[in-house]
């Protein structure tokens, strides 16, 4: 029995929903997604029971009232969590509401207004903004991948270790940049998400947790597909994760790649490849709608339903290298 299901069964006000939650989590696209939802919703339960409810005779009930969701968002902000982390916690609560066919409390105008203020504050202070590499900087990074690095233990890589690490770095950088992946998306990517076309180019499928079976196909070049095939292990199957790296490990690798290429790393993060794609496509004159689709940006992305797009190859002429 999943932990979240067990916690629901142990609370009279939630027990009727336990089976539905268990089924919904079991049908989610990945174990890590289900685990993240459990962790974040359990944190919300603890906050409600320990801090938000003054009357001990009361208990958490669903659906959550917008006023309570607003207090929780303010609580997360007071702890100075990154904006994307706050969104992640609210998204997990919304996931549970979708599973039970309830209106998501974070969509209430009261909560959305508060989140809009947070976004403006973060934009004004340039917090969590990833640097976008120029074409010249990207070339420097790619050219320096084989340079031996210091390991976390302080030892210099052997020539063989540097070559093997560089193969992974190249595949990671090209895939994230061309498909506009966030670091969490790259971390979850499996081999069944990669498809190759007759001309050697391919697509990367970014799966959506809800509804199940939906997502976006994003174009990648022949160079990217070749780099991926170069790191594929003989025993890898469709469910095997490609990079086997966490989001924080991806961020550290990106910073190291840029540092070795003598690039300022103060704003380099795991989302720098995504920012680089936006810069490259814009500088190359790609149509705005195509940039929005490749990056899953507003307004095009948010105003369209989730679906697997058949015309992903249209982006190929605008990708680099």
Low-confidence stretches: 124-128, 299-310
Residue share in helix: 40-55%
Q: Briefly note the CATH topology name of the largest domain.
A: hpI Integrase, Chain A
Q: Write down how many β-strands occur, each being a DSSP E stretch of 2 or more residues.
A: 3
Please summarize the sheet with the most strands.
3 strands, antiparallel
Structural class category? mainly alpha
From the alpha-carbon coordinates, what is the Rg to the nearest angstrom?
21 Å
Order of strands across the main sheet: 1-2-3
Number of helices: 13
In CATH, the homologous superfamily of the largest domain goes by the name Intergrase catalytic core
Total domain modules: 2
CATH C-level class of the largest domain? Mainly Alpha
User: Looking at the structure, what is the overall shape?
Assistant: globular
Topology overview:
Elements: H1 3-9, H2 18-26, H3 31-52, H4 66-78, H5 83-99, H6 109-124, H7 135-143, H8 159-179, H9 183-188, E1 194-196, E2 202-207, E3 215-220, H10 222-231, H11 247-260, H12 272-283, H13 288-295
In short:
With 321 residues, the chain is mainly alpha-helical.
Question: Can you walk through the features of this model?
Answer:
- The protein folds into 2 domains: 122 residues, Orthogonal Bundle (DNA polymerase, domain 1), CATH 1.10.150.130; 184 residues, hpI Integrase, Chain A.
- By secondary structure, the chain is mainly alpha-helical.
- The termini are far apart.
- The radius of gyration is 21 Å and the shape is globular.
- It has a 3-stranded antiparallel β-sheet.
- Helix 3 packs across helix 5, helix 4 packs parallel to helix 6 and helix 8 packs across helix 12.
- It has 13 helices and 3 strands; from the N terminus they run H-H-H-H-H-H-H-H-H-E-E-E-H-H-H-H.
